[in-house]
Each structure stands twice: as structure tokens, then as C-alpha cells.
Amino acid sequence: MAHDAVETKRRATYDDLLLVPDTMVAEIVDGDLVVTPRPATPHVFAAAEIAADLLPAFHGIEARSGPGGWWILPEPELHFGDDVLVPDLAAWRCARMPIVPDAPAIAVAPDWLAEIISPSSIRHDRIVKMRRYAQEGVSWVWLVDPLARTLEVLRLEADRWTVVSSHAANEVGRPEPFAAVEIQLARWWLPR
């Protein structure tokens, strides 16, 4: 009597992630090692401009020019159980995380994060990571597409993502949860 061998896939470990060269971005989601190229300049430019809009008004208990109350970090390494995710930007309310941990990774789920969509990461960012962020209770996600020049603001409601606003091109808006300041999207995009 023949027995069919059941092949079990080996789950990726943090040691596997450490072997990935610095020229790539490595994450572990649901046991799979996901490796993507470092982002291109439209992506990096958008991340820098988003940070430039948010940091002065919101970063820290007493921000330089706004209400403050958030810790905003670029590309933090987030550890959720065995999963390791690296959003482009993430923020925690200071009331939930009074100090930024002195550690290589953060295990506290952020309150907000931004994923800047690249052609090489679109499926991973919009599907796989969004499911994991919902499981961890991240309240808001901004999906930014620098090539299409769009911003989708999603809020977690009863374990489901709801699009609360969409913005494009040169619009000016006050996207949640940072509605205290007006944001000019035109600054986020590389000149054509």
C-alpha cells in the first residue's frame, strides 16, 4: 500500500530574514519570507514628503507646530508573533506608547501607518499586509500610490477596512487621523 507523502512547507524564521541583503526589504508574513527590491525614487520621495507634512505637527508629546501626541517613525520593524512587517511609516499615540522603545523592533501595533504602493509590492501591501494589520488592530492605514498620485485612507471598523476618504493628484485635504493640518498632495509626487 503506497502512502502519499505530505509535504509541509518550512516556515521562514528571523534568521532567514537576516540573510537577505540590505539592498532588499524582507518581511515574514504567515510563515512566508517576502523579499522586495528597495523602493524607487517616487516611493522614497512620497515617504519623505509625508513625513515632512506630519512630523512638525504631530511627532512627540509636544510637537514643533501642532497638536503633537504621536510617535511617527519611518520603516519601523514590527514584530507580531512570528510575523515581521516593515511599513513605510507608522505612528503610535503617545498615550498608548509613552516612550519609543530602545530596541531593533517594536511589538506594539501602531495606531496608523502608511504603505506606499510600488508595482513590485502592490499585491503584498494591499492584500497580505492589510489582513495582518487588521488582525493586530491598526486603526488607520494610508495607501499611497505615487505613480497614480492617489491616497486612500482606510479605517478599521469591526475588523473590516472602510475607505473613509480618497484623494488624488493636487488635492488639498485633511485625512484622518491627522485632520488637524491641511495636506497638499502635490508635494508628495515627483515632478513629471
Q: Specify the CATH architecture.
A: Alpha-Beta Complex
| % residues in beta strands | 25-35%
The total count of helices amounts to: 3
Query: Total number of β-strand segments?
Result: 12
Mean pLDDT: 93
Described by its quaternary structure, the protein is: single chain
Q: Can you summarize the main beta sheet?
A: 6 strands, mixed
Strand order of the largest sheet: 3-6-7-8-9-10
Distance between the termini: 67 Å
Structural class by sheet pairing and helices: alpha+beta
Shape: globular
Describe the structure.
- The chain has a single domain, classed as tt1808, chain A (Alpha-Beta Complex), CATH 3.90.1570.10.
- Helices cover 20% and strands 31% of the residues.
- It has helices at 14-18, 41-58, 122-136, and strands at residues 24-29, 32-37, 70-74, 78-80, 83-85, 89-93, 112-116, 140-145, 150-157, 160-168, 172-173, 183-184.
- A 6-stranded mixed sheet has the order 3-6-7-8-9-10, with helices on both faces. The chain has a two-stranded antiparallel ribbon with strand order 1-2.
- The longest helix is centred in the N-terminal third of the chain and has 18 residues, at 41-58.
- Helix 3 links the parallel strand 7 (112-116) and strand 8 (140-145).
A few lines on this structure:
The protein has 3 helices and 12 strands; from the N terminus they run H-E-E-H-E-E-E-E-E-H-E-E-E-E-E. It has 192 residues and is of the alpha+beta class.
